[in-house]
Design brief:
- The protein has 387 residues and is of the alpha+beta class.
- It is 45% helix and 22% strand.
- Strand 15 and strand 16 form a beta hairpin.
- The protein starts with a strand and ends with a helix.
- InterPro entries: Cas12f1-like_TNB, RNA-guided_DNA_endo/Transpos, Transposase.
């Protein structure tokens, strides 16, 4: 399995040359974007490069590699936009790019060591900048990780950071008939509930997290009623603080989930395929609860679980999320009234359990069914198939 990560390193001595390079880069991105937009449909990266390359090099003054990177990135963004249009989420629009972000190719645009990063700039060629390499980031410079295309970003605090993208091939646990599976249900009452094939379970981050977020919601409501400029600044500050809180909580919870999986010798973790589910949940949720459903970081927690699992050699399997909270784990009867808040009581067979745990058990069962099917067909995993 390929494990990918992003390591964030602070640039300690950014200068006007770096800032100007980023501004010129965004100017090139916006020029290429305007070409695609006025063309009226997506353009392949090679064709777009033929159209804009001369302008990027001669008029904007970008280096050769940057002038090749930009068409690929812009074409990729419009390809994503096209997919969103097909799903009915957005309409055709011109994509604009911020002057506070720049993507670089490893070796061609940058090189990096533990203490510095050398970046190709507009006026001074390849220039070295000192980076703050945190203790927990030094492990990624031991030669076992591959560096890939990375970014320079100016964060909201005004400082510049190098977002180093890395990847590594990690061994995957061999899937056997006796393998232990685990299902993980994500929610609001508990951030996550896990259940294994051996019926061992665990509840992670309970209602106190929801209480904290309710406090943020109350403060935000009070500030919105004032409508002053200072109140709006405070709302922005609270929003950023809440996002940092949830990111930290999600990191802690995902680490605990993987630890629980390792302790129980889990080979595959099952997660709900949440693509598109957030929008559906928001539409079907009572108005006074929509804040929690729309802002809850489901996908972020899944991402953290996924990359930590891969790092531990555990495979992730996404399963159909339909009716996991309404289906009885014992008799498979599905009904909306099976679940009543935190309680699950099957109207057909009488089975009772914690509602979130019942959902986690259903996810585990669906994951196990996929695993058994793979075993019977002799295709244990993509990694093993390609070996």
């Amino acid at each position: 399995m390929i494990l990918t990560k992003t390591v964030i390193l602070k640039i300690e001595n950014p200068d006007n040359n770096l800032v100007e390079t980023m501004q010129r880069y965004s100017e090139g991105m916006n020029h290429a974007s305007s070409v695609v937009f006025h063309y009226g449909k997506t353009i392949g990266s090679y064709k777009l490069q033929q159209i804009v390359y001369g302008y990027l090099r001669e008029t904007i003054g970008l280096k050769s590699q940057m002038s090749c990177n930009i068409p690929r990135q812009v074409a990729g963004c419009y390809k994503t936009l096209k997919e969103q249009i097909k799903e009915g989420k957005v309409n055709w629009k011109e994509i604009t790019f911020s002057p506070y972000s720049m993507t670089l190719s490893y070796k061609r645009d940058f090189s990096i060591s533990q203490d510095s990063v050398a970046i190709t700039t507009i006026n001074n060629g390849r220039k070295s900048y000192k980076i703050q390499n945190y203790d927990n980031a030094q492990q990624y410079f031991d030669g076992t990780w591959k560096f890939t295309a990375s970014k320079v970003l100016r964060h909201k605090d005004g400082n510049h950071y190098f977002h180093l993208s890395i990847e590594k091939d990690v061994p995957e646990k061999e899937l056997e008939e006796t393998s232990n599976y685990m299902g993980v249900d994500l929610g609001m009452n508990y951030l996550a509930v896990a259940s294994t094939t051996e019926k061992k379970c665990n509840f992670f981050a309970g209602g106190h997290i929801k209480d904290i977020r309710n406090q943020y919601k109350s403060m935000r409501t009070r500030l919105q009623s004032k409508g002053t400029l200072s109140a709006k600044r405070m709302i922005k500050h609270l929003s950023d603080k809440e996002k940092r809180l949830m990111r930290d909580v999600n990191h802690v919870v995902s680490k605990q989930i993987i630890k629980f999986a390792i302790e129980n010798n889990v080979s595959i973790i099952g997660l709900e395929d949440l693509k598109g589910i957030r929008e559906n949940r928001v539409r079907k949720t009572r108005r006074n609860n929509r804040y929690h459903h729309s802002s809850w970081a489901y996908r972020q927690l899944q991402d953290f679980i996924e990359y930590k699992a891969i790092e531990a050699g555990i495979k992730i399997q996404f399963v159909d999320p339909a009716h996991t909270s309404q289906e009885c784990n014992q008799c498979n009867h599905v009904a909306k009234n099976n679940r009543n808040r935190l309680n699950f009581a099957c109207k057909k067979c009488g089975y009772e359990n914690n509602a979130d745990l019942n959902a986690a058990m259903n996810i585990e069962k669906r994951t196990r069914d996929i695993g058994y099917t793979s075993l019977s067909q002799g295709c244990l995993s993509a990694t093993q198939t390609n070996a």
